[in-house]
């Protein structure tokens, strides 16, 4: 799993000034110096396309963001279709462009992260550009610990 997270990070952004905080089951926690941010990140365990997708929860002190959700979809989506995040019985509509999705606002981010902390898995459902539905599925074991570790790493820095 550590190798998979390392490959994901190499694809996401250059790691010139990245510190590894820890790997917690399927989730990793990291701190970047420039731009200053800390984040928890995971790859889907099942994806609707190539496994280029990821889910991250980031804290960006200079932007005033704390535990903010960002999803990179595994496939380009049909812009006419919505993106839904599901954890257990809870469903959330996300704001999205062709490949990325996020919560609509800070209260939605807080609600999403609270649900992620207690869930076993989450899925992100959308319709691909060609019209076929797809889902990216994430295991949530280790997510709460990685989110907390990332948030703590940005305190005082």
Description:
By secondary structure, this protein is α+β, with helices and mostly antiparallel strands. The chain is 23% helix and 40% strand. The chain is built from three helices and ten strands. The longest helix has 13 residues, at 106-118. It is globular, with a radius of gyration of 15 Å. The two termini are 28 Å apart. Mean pLDDT is 87; it is low at 1-11.
Provide a compact summary of the structure.
The chain has 157 residues and is an alpha+beta fold.
Mean pLDDT: 87
Please state how the strands of the largest beta sheet are arranged side by side. Answer: 1-2-3-4-5-8-7-6-9-10
What pattern of helices and strands is seen along the backbone? Answer: HEEEEEEEEHEEH
Radius of gyration: 15 Å
Give the count of helical stretches. Answer: 3
- The proportion of residues in beta strands is 35-45%
**How can the largest sheet be summarized?**
10 strands, antiparallel
Keywords:
157 residues, alpha+beta, ten-stranded antiparallel beta sheet, 40% strand, disordered N terminus
Q: What is the secondary structure topology, with strand pairs?
A:
Elements: H1 2-12, E1 18-24, E2 27-32, E3 37-42, E4 54-60, E5 65-72, E6 83-87, E7 90-96, E8 100-102, H2 106-118, E9 121-127, E10 133-139, H3 143-154
Antiparallel strand pairs: 1-2, 2-3, 3-4, 4-5, 5-8, 6-7, 6-9, 7-8, 9-10
